[in-house]
Amino acid sequence: MDKQIKAKRFYAHCDLIEGTTDVYYCSFCNMLVKEKHFREEHLNKNHNHKFKATLHEWERKKARGTTRVRPDNAPNRLKE
Ligand SMILES: [Zn+2]
N or C terminus: which one in the chain shows less Cβ crowding within 10 Å? Predict the structure, then answer.
């Protein structure tokens, strides 16, 4: 039974969007994008660095208090 409280997800860079199999959050653009976006728009960017930066930002938001949640096992294209 799913008794999860509906809370807004926090998406880190390259996190897979819940309920989809091929849509990701791009933190460079603040947009929901498909996989090819990362190759076509950000070929020379360091995505792992950006991912860590958004996670760090998330930790700071959590420390201050936020209603948003990000599960520890959040699917992310960088870990695959
Ligand atoms: Zn982008």
Answer: N
